[in-house]
Amino acid sequence: MKRKVLLIYTGGTIGMEKDYETGSLMPFNFEKIFNKIPEMKLLECEVTVHSFDEPLDSSDVGPEEWKMIAKIIGDFYDDFDGFLVLHGTDTMSYTASALSFMLKGLRKPVILTGSQLPIGDLRTDAKENLLTSIYYASLYENDTPVIQEVALYFEYKLLRGNRSLKYSAKYFDAYQSPNYPLLGQSGVHLNIEKQLLYRAPEHEEFKVDFHLSQDIIFWRIFPGMTLKHFAEIPKVKVLILQVFGSGTIFNNKGTENVLQKLRRNGTEIVVVTQCISGGISFGKYENSTVFNKIGAISGSDMTAECAITKAMHVFENPAFNGKFAEHFTENLRGEMSV
Predict the structure, then answer these.
(1) Are 186 and 156 in contact, with CB atoms under 8 Å apart?
(2) Catalytic one among 10, 89, 91, 95?
(3) What is the model's pTM?
(4) Most Cβ neighbours (<10 Å): which of 164, 165, 305, 334?
(5) Cα–Cα distance between 93 and 168 in angstroms, integer?
(6) CA 177 to chain centre
(7) Residue 97 annotated as binding site
């Protein structure tokens, strides 16, 4: 039987073509993608296109758009064997991370991809990314989907969505998964590392959880900065601090006093690293002990994109009983090492 894939087009470079009169990039009608890539007619699966009314630059994709994508997947979950989300590259890792938490009990492939060059460009990477993503989205064995999680495919690499980050705006090989191995690579054959794939708990039925709090602030620490401004934002619900190395910050009483004041005002403080690879280890150095003193929460080796979207999903979510810290430090979707 032919597998059915729903292609959700949100916007981004992959759906652009050059206006040869102005030289500007303009979105084309993605419903006509089969004319742009006639090879799609050779695929051994049926592809249905569902486009956003207005294609969006990925910098305009946020919580409301994540909910729209999740709703489309939820509404058509029983009608399709897999889902492919075409997305601009700049914020694709945020969307992949958010969807991984919103789509509970997922047992079908949800693949995100995009491109660095427009689909009509002579040297485009769009065609390979699109065609191979469709293969991954329709990959079944013994009538069972091989991939049952949110993944990101780009330049021959399949990555766990909530482990991915964009590290290059220049090269086709634009994404990394620094703290988790690749789920697969495409070459002559489509390779999958099956032992690395995520599987939802057996008792968890598929549902879409749309909860996304926007009471989250992300702040990157830099040498010499003053923390006095933190004391002026006492209404912050969750503050994610991106600090040095394995979890260090300025070692002075002023730092501790400001952070303690925030904690007394009820702010949850999450700590993630500025390093691309590795994670947080409170107490490894003296300059990280302050976080133990104030009861901060370790972001482990989560990417910043993942920590932000996970905090948005978990904070004040009625589906999670208990304290925020308890659920934030739980490995919910394979997003952190334990």
Answers:
(1) yes
(2) 89
(3) 0.96
(4) 164
(5) 13
(6) 11
(7) no
Identified catalytic residue from 10, 13, 113, 309: 13
The answer to whether residue 329 is catalytic is: no
- Long-range contacts from 17-22, C-beta under 8 angstroms, 24+ separation: 17/118, 17/119, 17/120, 18/118, 18/120, 18/121
Active site residue 309: no
Q: Is 125 annotated as a binding residue?
A: no
Walk along the chain (338 residues) and give the pLDDT tens digit of each residue.
Answer: 899 999 999 999 888 877 767 767 777 777 767 777 888 888 889 999 999 999 999 999 999 999 999 999 999 999 999 999 999 999 999 999 999 999 999 999 999 999 999 887 889 999 999 999 999 999 999 999 999 999 999 999 999 999 999 999 999 999 999 999 999 999 998 899 999 999 999 999 999 999 999 999 999 999 999 888 887 776 889 999 999 999 999 988 889 999 999 999 999 999 999 999 999 999 888 899 999 999 999 999 999 999 999 999 999 999 999 999 999 999 999 999 97
Quickly name the fold that domain 3-208 has.
Rossmann fold (3.40.50)
Is the torsion defined by CA of 335, 91, 31, 116 positive or negative?
Answer: negative
**Residue ranges covered by each domain of the chain:** 3-208, 216-328
Calpha distance 72→122 (Å, rounded): 32
Domain 216-328, CATH class in plain words = alpha beta
